[in-house]
Amino acid sequence: MLSFERIPDQVGYLVMTEDGAVVSSSGELENGERIANVVAGLISLSDKVDPVAFPGDKGFKKITVNYENHAYIICLSNKKVYVVKRRTHPQAPLDADLTS
């Protein structure tokens, strides 16, 4: 069994079946049916991406959705979808160094 508590800055997780049913959840994603629906839609959308523009016959390995203070990491493994919400540490924009 995966130990989500060992993931640095993890604030919640969600495990789903490939069809979007929630198997387990914890932290900020506990009972996260809405997030599960959004993730299922995102996965469905990624499966429809133009294969000419994005070659690869096996689909995605990992999807990361970044926000200012957190990120969602989505992975598919053993017919399960794993979603982890992690705190991120905001960084100054790269052009901020140029104006100083």
UniProtKB/TrEMBL annotation:
UniProt source species: Frankliniella occidentalis (Western flower thrips)
Keyword Hydrolase carried by entry: no
Indicate yes or no for the key word Kinase.
no
Q: Which domain of life is it from?
A: Eukaryota
Q: Which residues form a coiled coil?
A: none
What Gene Ontology molecular function terms does this protein carry?
A: guanyl-nucleotide exchange factor activity
Q: Where in the cell is it found?
A: Lysosome
Q: Which family does it belong to?
A: Belongs to the LAMTOR4 family.
InterPro entries for the chain: LAMTOR4
GO BP terms: cellular response to amino acid stimulus; positive regulation of TOR signaling
Q: Transmembrane residues, as ranges? A: none
Q: Name one GO cellular component term.
A: Ragulator complex
This chain belongs to which protein, by name? Late endosomal/lysosomal adaptor and MAPK and MTOR activator 4
- Swiss-Prot/TrEMBL keywords: Lysosome
